[in-house]
Amino acid sequence: MRNILLIVAVFGLLLLVTAETQAQCSCKKEYIDITPRAEFKLAHLVFIGKVVELKKSPANENGHYTETVTFEVTKAWKHDLKSTITLTNWIYGCINGYEVNLEWFVYAYQEKNGSLTSYCCCTRTRPLDKADEDVKEFANDPQAKVVGPEKSNQ
Predict the structure, then answer these.
(1) Domain boundaries, the chain
(2) pLDDT digit string (tens) for 50-96?
(3) What residues does 67 pair with on adjacent strands?
(4) What's the DSSP call for residue 14?
(5) Strand pairing partners for 86?
(6) Fewer CB atoms inside 10 Å of the end CB: C or N, the chain?
(7) 3-state SS of the chain: helix, strand, coil percent to 5?
(8) pLDDT of residue 150
(9) Do 118 and 54 form a contact (C-beta atoms < 8 A)?
(10) What's 29-147's CATH class?
(11) DSSP 41
(12) How far apart, in Å, do the first and last CA atoms of the chain sit?
């Protein structure tokens, strides 16, 4: 009887934890368990960069806010980039955890208005020290140029 109660309790706890996780971040099907190469094809920009500036807007009545992250780009693969790139993310409950001076492997997407975003937790964007699979995947790929802001189209 104790074993049955324990199993029921563990199962109930798993249901609660799973429901909480899904409520915080709901991703499109194509982003679930996506590989580095598959996300490369979907993303507009792929780069490694260090966070040099982080701004958060005041939260609205639902607790949502805008996070603007500026990176100093050190490597790029998909397009020639300015040495500084800024992403704007609308935060609905999940966060990437950007911190100033932390290096990131970034898959950036271009919105219809031209701004760049990283889609929060629904991408492989992650701190560089947790992106070994991504770094290895693109290690032998030709790199794009990282140029001063006055010379790039991005």
Answers:
(1) 29-147
(2) 999 999 889 888 888 888 999 999 999 988 999 999 998 887 766 66
(3) 56, 89
(4) H
(5) 70
(6) N
(7) 30, 30, 40
(8) 53
(9) no
(10) mainly beta
(11) H
(12) 64
Tell me the per-residue pLDDT of 31-47, one tens digit each, with 9 for 90 and over. 778 899 999 999 999 99
Cα distances (Å, whole numbers) of residue 46 to 32, 34, 41, 152: 18, 15, 10, 15
Locate 11 and state its tokens.
Answer: 């199962």
β-pair type (81-82, 146-147): parallel
| Residue 132, token pair as written in the block | 């070994």
When pLDDT is cut at 50, 70 and 90, the band that residue 152 belongs to is very low
Alpha carbon 73 to its chain's center: 15
CA count, 13 A, side-chain hemisphere, 3: 0
Q: How far apart are CA 78 and CA 50, in angstroms?
A: 18
